[in-house]
Amino acid sequence: MKPPVKLKIAIATYGHTAALKDGRVRIETVDGDFLEINPIIAAFRRMVRDVEFDVCEMAPATYMIARAAGAPFKALPIFIFRRFHHAGIVCRPDSGIRAPKDLEGKKVGVRAYSVSTGIWTRGILADEYGVDNAKVTWVVDDEEHVTTLKLPPNVTKAPAGQSLVSMMADGQLQAAFTGPAGIGRAGAPKDGWEASASAAPAAAYRDLIPDAQRLEAEWFRRTGIYPVHGLIVVKDALLAERSWLARALFDAFTKAKSLYVDRLKAGEVANDVDRSYVELSKVVGDPLPYGLAANRPAIDALIRYSHQQGLLPKRYEAGEMFVDPQA
């Protein structure tokens, strides 16, 4: 019997990862040292820059950009956060923006150009509404996780001492992303960063795309794309040394997820995240599908969007970016 390998693992506590972190589900032949990092986005940055962990949660676009730049870790098709992206941009009432196409020529705030939310939304704006993203000025107030990333010329940094929150409030921005991708926080990822932006008068702004939930469901039925967030990366050296590791991780994450989904099906709904996945399941079925086959439309779309937006040097094949533990 192989002795267990000790791994430093940085993942957030979700309903579908809780059983891994509290020991109800074990990763075969692994002694997991689960680290608590809040917000988990800070772990993405530490992994990209310092390869600090053996196994780490990471935003999928951040991972792809880092991998294309030579990062020594590779992704498993375990996507531990899901949401759609027709919602999430708001406009000032005096912006002159009445439809998505009106974003052209305007300044729009987003935490960093490479955040996955921004990439997904810009892709949808281009595909569904004909927006030329190159004609929008994207204003950022945080660093990109991958420091070597060269940004397009229509991306600009917020002036020193200002944030997206303040720029949106005083009219320097005409539109902005909400939540952690925009005016729902201020500054770089740290404890309490969303609360620091709680004074943002989001209620005073207008949704760019009304009736987003209905449109998202129609888009999914038409395209099969269920946007991915939060995947799992593993150091290349570990994958090379231990051929069994990818499958062991995949199986354990799948088992923990199944416990969570069964709980939701039984009506055990404890918070807003649970309620969100219950609602999503009415549209997509499994609210947290794992594996390459189940996620190919989303993976291919994210690669295409990232390339179109100047974040990847080419359109990669899924197999270049992911280990297939089910192969």
Structure characterization notes:
- With 327 residues, this protein is of the alpha/beta class.
- It folds into two domains: 175 residues, Periplasmic binding protein-like II (D-Maltodextrin-Binding Protein, domain 2, 3-Layer(aba) Sandwich); 133 residues, D-Maltodextrin-Binding Protein, domain 2, CATH 3.40.190.
- The protein is built from eleven helices and 13 strands.
- A six-stranded mixed sheet has the order 9-8-7-10-6-11. The protein has a five-stranded mixed sheet with strand order 2-1-3-13-4. Strands 5-12 form a two-stranded antiparallel sheet.
- The chain is globular.
- The relative contact order is 0.20.
- The mean pLDDT is 93.
Number of strands: 13
Portion of residues within helices: 25-40%
Estimate the global geometry from the Cα principal axes: globular
The biggest sheet amounts to: 6 strands, mixed
What's the Cα radius of gyration?
Answer: 20 Å
Poorly predicted runs: none
Q: CATH superfamily assignment of the largest domain?
A: Periplasmic binding protein-like II
What is the ordering of alpha helices and beta strands?
Answer: EHEHEHEEEEHEEHEEHEEHHHHH
The structure class reads alpha/beta
List the helices and strands and how they pair.
Blueprint: E1 5-10, H1 18-21, E2 30-35, H2 41-50, E3 55-58, H3 60-68, E4 73-76, E5 81-82, E6 89-91, E7 107-109, H4 116-129, E8 137-140, E9 155-157, H5 164-169, E10 175-177, E11 206-207, H6 212-223, E12 228-229, E13 231-235, H7 236-241, H8 245-265, H9 272-284, H10 292-308, H11 318-321
Parallel strand pairs: 1-2, 1-3, 7-8, 7-10, 8-9
Antiparallel strand pairs: 3-13, 4-13, 5-12, 6-10, 6-11
Helix pairs in contact: 4-10
